[in-house]
Every structure is written in C-alpha cells, then in structure tokens.
Amino acid sequence: MAQAFDAEAQQAVLASRAEQALALAKALGADAAEVGASVDQGVEVSVRLGDVETVELSRDQGVAVTVYVGQRKGSASSTDAGEDSIRAAVEKALAIARYTGEDPAAGLADASLMASENPDMGVHHPWALSTEQAIELALESERAGREVEGITQSEGATLSTGEGVRVYANSHGFVGTQKGSRHGLSCLLIAEDDSGMQRDFDYTTARNPAELRDPAEVGREAARKTLRRLGARRPPTGTFPVLFDPSQAGGLVGHLMSALAGGALYRQASFLCDSLGKPLFPEWFSLVERPMEHGATASSPFDGDGVQTRNNRFIDRGKVASYMLSAYSARRLSMETTGNAGGARNLRLDAPLEPVEALLKRMDRGVWVTELMGQGVNGVTGDYSRGASGFWIENGEVQYPIEEFTIAGNLEQMFASLAGLGDDLDTRGSVHTGSWLIDSMTVAGN
User: Fold this and answer.
1) pTM greater than 0.90 (yes/no)
2) CA-atom Rg of the chain in angstroms
3) What is the DSSP string of 354-413?
4) Both 76 and 158 in a single domain?
5) Separation between Cα atoms, residue 284 and residue 249, nearest integer Å
6) Less Cβ around it within 10 Å: N or C end of the chain?
7) In angstroms, rounded to a whole number, what is the distance separating the alpha carbons of residues 225 and 217?
8) Residues 420 and 283 reside in one and the same domain
9) In what residue span(s) does the Metalloprotease TldD/E central domain sit (predicted)?
10) Among 274, 427, 443, CA closest to 347
C-alpha cells in the first residue's frame, strides 16, 4: 500500500503554506487574496475474470491562488504545494490581475459571512486496508456475480479507497480546513442470449468503510440487473407516463440545480431566470439542502468562498424559493450569497413518498427508465431529449426490458407534471432521492 497518510500533519502544512501565500500576495501588492490547497492519497485495484488487472496508488496535491488588485482579478494554480511553486503562482496571478479588466462584482465574500462554526463533520474515516485485502474484496464481488446462472462474461470489479485534506484561506484572516475520505466498490457483468448481449453494474460507496455493502451482495445485484435486461426490444412510440429509477432521477435534480445556479442566471442562460416565487412543482414537493449533515457525502461547514454553509430550501411547496449563489454570482444579481460557492451540498426531498409498486400501478402503461444516454438537455430552454433503456409497463406490471428509444419533454413541464416520488431512496450520492413518476413524456421507439 501507499505510505501512511497523516491527515493532521497535512492539514497543518497546507494551512501554513496558504498563510504564506496570502502574506506574499499582500507584500507584492495585492489588495486581497484567497488560496485553496488540497492533498489526496488513494489506492484502486481492479480485477477481471479472477485475475488482478491493475493496482494504482495515487497521491495528488495542488494549490490555487486568486489575487485582487482593486477590482481586477488574477488566478494561477500549481500541482505542487512547495514554497517555490506557491511563490510562482502568486507572482503569475498578480501579473494576470494587472492586465485584466475591472469587474465590479470581483472580490472576497464579506468578512462578516466567514464560517465561525467548524465542527467535525464525521466525514473522515481512513481504511487500514492492505493491497492484498483490497484485491480479495474485489475478487469476492466479481466471483459472487459470475456464479449467478446466466452470467457469461465480466468487465471486472474495482475497489477504491482514499482520503484527503483541503484548506481554504483568505486575507480576511479566515482559514478553513477539512479532512475527508471516500471508499467504493463496483462490479460490471455481461450476459448473453439469442437476442444479444447485455451488461449492467452495481456499486456501493461511503465515507465510512463500515457502511459499504457486502462485496458479494454487490456482485449478485450486478448479475440480477444484467440478467433482467436480456431479451430487450424497442417500445412503441407515443405519449406515456415515465418512471425514472432513483439512479436516473438524481439527474433531474442536477438539471434543476444547474438552472438555479447563479452563473447560469446572470448570464441569462437558464430556463428559470426570474423564477423566484413562481410555481414549478406540485404543491406537495419541496427540495432542501443540508450541508452540515453529519457523515454525509458532501458535508462541509464552509463553501468555496469561506462562507458559513446553511440549510437552504430551494423549492418550497412547489415554488422556487431560492437560487444557488456564490458571493460573485450574488453580486451580479444584486442578491446575497446562499453559501453555495462550489455547488449544493446534500440535497434532500421534503415530500410524501410511496412504494414503487404503487407508482407502477398508477402509471398503468408506460416506461420505467433505468439508464439514460446522451447529453440532450438544453439549459436555456429546458428542452430534454435522452436515449434510454429500461422496462415496458402494462397494467402496472413489468412486461419486458426495452432499449434503443428516446424520451423527450421540457424540464419545466416535466417538473410541473411530477405525479409521485418513490420510497426507494438511493443514498449513495449527494442527492438522496427515490423514483420520479412524470405524468407524460414523448417516447420514440418503434
């Protein structure tokens, strides 16, 4: 395995280097400056057909410096956090700032907004795992999947484990540090019959290795998902209800947040411009952010501007309640930051959930989407068109797998026609959501 990672020592070193960079920027003429630095170390092993394919040990570090001369801004970065590299980055950032145009919105977030609470978020759980143990866990997962009758081939299993430290500091005197870890295991399998070849996968990921699912379970679930795709055909063309599996419903939340992001709004590149207070979803639907949730995937006490994070309610009883703003985008929109420099953290549904079986019964005849392909989403208009695969539903029950079809609609109309949410929550990412039933979309198949 890689050399031991002393997170506390790395934290102290990065914080010291960041403060050195700030002092140097001031000495060289910057009116204000901010520094982000990080170091990450990890191990990844991949196996296939019972043999080890790769063992990768990684160690990455970097530092990014932004300086402000008046309202002129310059940024530079380096993959080396050494003193010489930091000096070079500061000098380059200053040289850039002196030649850029003035931006009235440029500058640090207000000093009064800097994070004053920095509790342990419970997101750092190192895994003392040897290379041999990592390999055996990956082999166990693949072996369990390949033992399922009908599985004919494997793309392998991969186990990864890593931890890191990040530091953000600025010339307000704010220095924020955070340790974190991330562990995961995935398995991808192949099955074949007279209709052709199909593949699918399953995975588990967690901050704490104790919360990972059993490797054999991951392999068997990958096998189940692969086998259920055999015999796929194209669905009929028409207008039908569409049920998005949780693994795909999270993407709908992602499109929503992209449209609520300050950068898209001040550029007038969002279909949700000037939407505050306007209905977007049914009245029973709300979406909240909980960035301080203990042990969660994206928890952090401060955002990319050093601003204290807070619970936000982006959708409240169906209406747009808040945009997602950094200090810069807030100034561009003449608003206040929402503590979202770097994006949203830990999005959660605040809405009634029901069993997936009930959603299937309600849709009666339509499409259950379990995989999406392509990038056919227009953030300016909200037009949505994606290739998909999944299952055809008739009389509220699964009839057969389907593939090679397209679903299309408009995100604003899709959100308004949200008919129900499943209780099959996928909690593996920053967005926790179950299935989404959209009342009507265009399906292009046969």
Assistant:
1) yes
2) 24
3) B-HHHHHHHH-SEEEEEEEES--B-TTT-EEEEEEEEEEEETTEEEEEEEEEEEEEEHHH
4) yes
5) 17
6) C
7) 12
8) no
9) 125-230
10) 427
